[in-house]
């Protein structure tokens, strides 16, 4: 590590979570930090997902940093370009841009037990950091489907998160694989332009109306001029979304109104009985992310669009072959099959005290953390949007900011008490996760459907199974007693809690 750049905090990723961490920690006085991002700009998933129709399905007043509300949102659900501009604007105003290195990929991050530091190897040199913050994102590693022959397709193939804008679609035969949140935005946006569109549906999703509207200039100026108005609207949006949690986690009966709304929309928008039968969801609403669209069913009802429900057998050189033996010709294949979540390649690159990668640990023990943020055996590491923090119903930025409260308080606590390292106790982490699993057992996510919330054992380690305010409460303060820690020699913290000296490690508290 002779050539390594020494830094206090190393942050991986400059999306909403990594940028938020850089801003928050700088404000708390931890400004010796470096952020790296493999992309060329901030924004993470909002930089990468440029597919036609990309937009957020959480209202924009709620889907913003609490410290950077934007009175100028043009509409209730902003398009990707506006969210991307928002995060770029926040980054520019925050003063942390000069701490971010773009086009830099983390190759590995290994905890050096002897030095109690993180050795981070990147495509632009090595770093030696006290604290590692993984803000690499969750919905960022495109998952290509394992379909025989797909690599031999003679036309163009691309994933929604890597949209190739150089490929013309007008008048051509396009196939879209998948009917999740990305596909339902792409399909209505391209259906009128393409010659023919085949939509390959494995599972019919629940689709509710999208109650979107343009914000007139008067309303936007009121948000600027009337103190508290925007926060009030944001608060109401927050509370109304939190009501869904009752149905998702506690009483299925509470889902009845939205189930009825979904059925009514299907009945109203799809007159063709055969098509309606194909599009009728056969699983409990909420088990997969509930989709919002007013244009999905009308797009699928168009004369130039076919919904194909026969399973895909293979991809041939000039089209898609379904299990019934039919070949459906296509010029362009759009893959809308989601992301690696519980099996992200990012996990392979981080190694803790025993040299085990997070991927190996989570493969054998399940994807588990403590309060979604710290992992036993990975001292001084904080994972943003870690295990059991994912949401389908509300804003991930709320969860990220809750985690940032916890991380900031951890850093303050370490500073005040003279601690070199904190490492969550395995027993505390296990008990926490046992409780989480018990809390998830009756939720809708494990009600029998397949989704990215689940791992290959059928557990739902990616999703937060409760009201989001209970996560906010859990993460309000850093609970030092849950952690093993080592203290600086002679630090006040060392004597406070009965520490023992350990050769080469400062001292360790058990
Ligand atoms: P996704 O929700 O994981 O959906 C993937 C789709 O591809 C599903 O319909 C799935 O079918 C299908 N699929 C996967 N493998 C397949 C295969 N081998 N053959 C045929 N079909 C296959 O992915 P996504 O739509 O990209 O969305 C991921 C997440 O990103 C969302 O849940 C959401 O959290 C976020 N997102 C948000 C927005 C927004 O805010 N508006 C927009 C886009 C994405 P099955 O259902 O049968 O598995």
- Contiguous low-pLDDT stretches (5 residues minimum) are 492-510
Quick one: biggest sheet?
8 strands, mixed
Beta-sheet strand percentage? 15-25%
**Helix vs. strand class:** alpha/beta
Number of strands: 22
User: What is the average per-residue confidence, as pLDDT, rounded to a whole number?
Assistant: 94
Distance between the amino and carboxyl termini: 30 Å
| Rg | 24 Å
Which compounds are bound in this model? NADP nicotinamide-adenine-dinucleotide phosphate
The tally of helices reads 14
Portion in helices: 25-40%
Question: How would you sum up this structure, described in words?
Answer:
- This protein is an alpha/beta fold and 510 residues long.
- The protein is built from 14 helices and 22 strands.
- Strands 1, 2, 3, 4, 5, 6, 17 and 18 form an eight-stranded mixed sheet that branches. It has a five-stranded parallel sheet with strand order 7-16-8-9-12, with no helix packed on it.
- Strand 14 and strand 15 form a beta hairpin.
- Helix 1 packs parallel to helix 11 and helix 11 packs parallel to helix 13.
- The longest helix has 22 residues.
- The chain is globular and about 75 Å long.
- The chain starts with a strand and ends with a strand.
- NADP nicotinamide-adenine-dinucleotide phosphate binds next to helix 4.
How would the blueprint of this fold be written?
Layout lengths: L4 E8 L3 H12 L5 E5 L7 H4 L31 H15 L5 E3 L3 E7 L4 E6 L2 E10 L21 E4 L13 E5 L5 H8 L5 E5 L6 E2 L8 H9 L3 H22 L5 H14 L3 H7 L11 E2 L3 H5 L4 E4 L3 E5 L2 E4 L4 E3 L2 E4 L14 E2 L6 H8 L15 E3 L12 H22 L1 E6 L1 H15 L27 H7 L8 E5 L4 H5 L3 E2 L5 E3 L1
Parallel strand pairs: 1-2, 1-6, 2-3, 4-17, 6-18, 7-16, 8-9, 8-16, 9-12, 10-11
Antiparallel strand pairs: 4-5, 5-6, 13-14, 14-15, 19-20, 20-22, 21-22
Bound molecules: NADP nicotinamide-adenine-dinucleotide phosphate.
NADP nicotinamide-adenine-dinucleotide phosphate (NAP) binds next to helix 4.
């Amino acid at each position: 590590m002779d050539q390594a750049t020494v830094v206090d905090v190393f942050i991986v990723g400059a999306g909403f979570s990594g940028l938020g961490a850089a801003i928050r920690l700088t404000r708390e006085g931890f400004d010796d930090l470096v952020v790296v991002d493999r992309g060329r700009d901030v924004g993470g998933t909002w930089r990468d997902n440029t597919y036609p129709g990309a937009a957020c399905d959480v209202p924009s007043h709620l889907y913003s940093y609490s410290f950077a509300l934007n009175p100028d949102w043009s509409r209730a659900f902003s398009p990707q370009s506006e969210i991307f501009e928002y995060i770029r604007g926040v980054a520019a105003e925050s003063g942390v841009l000069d701490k971010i290195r773009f086009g830099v990929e983390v190759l590995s991050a290994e905890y050096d037990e002897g030095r109690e530091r993180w050795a981070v190897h990147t495509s632009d040199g090595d770093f030696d950091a006290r604290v590692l913050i993984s803000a690499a994102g969750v919905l960022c590693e495109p998952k290509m489907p394992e379909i025989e022959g797909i690599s031999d397709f003679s036309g163009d193939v691309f994933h929604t998160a890597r949209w190739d804008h150089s490929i013309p679609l007008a008048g051509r035969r396009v196939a879209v694989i998948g009917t999740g949140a990305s596909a339902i935005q792409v399909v209505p946006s391209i259906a009128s332009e393409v010659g023919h569109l085949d939509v390959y549906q494995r599972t019919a999703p629940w689709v509710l109306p999208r109650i979107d509207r343009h914000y007139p200039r008067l309303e936007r100026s009121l948000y600027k001029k009337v103190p508290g108005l925007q926060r009030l609207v944001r608060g109401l949006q927050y509370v109304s979304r939190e009501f869904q949690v009752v149905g998702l986690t506690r009483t299925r009966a509470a889902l009845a109104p939205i189930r009825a709304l979904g059925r009514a929309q299907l009945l109203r928008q799809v007159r063709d009985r055969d098509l309606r039968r194909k599009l009728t969801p056969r699983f409990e609403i909420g088990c997969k992310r509930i989709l919002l669209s007013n244009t999905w069913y009308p797009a699928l009802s168009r004369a130039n669009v076919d919904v194909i429900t026969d399973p895909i057998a293979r991809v041939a050189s000039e089209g898609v072959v379904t299990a019934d033996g039919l070949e459906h010709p296509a010029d362009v294949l759009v893959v809308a099959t989601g992301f690696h979540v519980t099996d992200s390649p990012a996990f392979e690159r981080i190694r803790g005290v025993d040299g085990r990668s997070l991927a190996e640990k989570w493969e054998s023990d399940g994807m588990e953390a403590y309060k979604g943020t710290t992992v036993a055996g990975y001292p001084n590491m904080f994972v943003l949007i870690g295990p059991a923090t994912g949401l389908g119903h509300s804003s991930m930025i709320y969860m990220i900011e809750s985690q940032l409260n916890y991380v900031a308080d951890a850093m303050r606590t370490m500073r005040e008490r003279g601690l070199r390292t904190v490492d969550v106790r395995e027993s505390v982490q296990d008990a926490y996760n046992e409780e989480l699993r018990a809390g998830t057992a009756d939720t809708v996510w494990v009600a029998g459907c397949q989704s990215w919330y689940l791992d290959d054992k059928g557990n739902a380690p990616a999703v937060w199974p409760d009201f989001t305010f209970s996560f906010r409460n859990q993460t309000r303060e850093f609970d030092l007693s849950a952690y093993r820690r080592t203290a600086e020699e002679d630090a006040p913290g060392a004597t406070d809690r009965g520490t023992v000296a350990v050769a080469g490690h400062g001292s360790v508290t058990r």
